Amino acid sequence: MRVTFTVNGRPQEADDVWEGESLLYVLRERMGLPGSKNACEQGECGSCTVRLDGVPVCSCLVAAGQVQGRRVDTVEGLAGEDGELSAIQQAFVDAGAVQCGFCTPGLLVAADELLEHNPSPSDGDIREALSGNLCRCTGYEKILDAVRLAAARTGQGV
Amino acid sequence: MTATQGRVRPRAIGTPLDRLDGRAKVTGSARYAYEQPVGEPVYLHAVQATVARGRITGIDTEAAAAVPGVLAVLTHRNAPRLADTRDAELAVLQSDAVAFRGQFVGGVVATTSEAARYAASLVRTTYDTQPHDSVLRPDRDDLYAPESVNGGFATDTEQGDVEAALASAAVTVDQTYTTAMNHNNPMEPHTTVAVWNDGELTLYESTQGVHMVRSQVAPLFGLQPDEVHVVSPFVGGGFGSKGTPHAPVVLAAMAARLVPGRAVRFALTRPQMFFVAGYRTPTVQHIRLGADRGGRLTAISVDAVSQTSRIKEFAEQTAVAARMMYAAPHRRTTHRLARLDVPVPSWMRAPGECPGMFAAEVAMDELAEACGLDPVELRIRNEPATDPETGRPFSSRNLVACLREGARRIGWERREQAPRSRREAGHLVGLGVAASVYPVFWMPGSSATVRAGAGGRYTVSIGAADLGTGTWTALAQIAADALEVPVERVELRIGDTAFPPASVAGGSSGITAWGSAVVHAARRLRETYGNAPPDGAEATGETGDNPATERFAMYAFGAQFAEVRVDEETGEVRVPRLVGVFAAGCVINPKTARSQLVGGMTMGLSMALHEESHVDGRLGQVANHDLAEYHIAANADVGDIDVSWIDEDDPHVNPMGSKGIGEIGIVGTAAAVANAAHNATGVRVRDLPITLDKLLGDPGAGNGPAVRRR
Ligand code: FES
Ligand code: FES
Question: Which residues form the 2Fe-2S ferredoxin-type domain (chain A) (predicted)?
Answer without folding.
Answer: 1-78
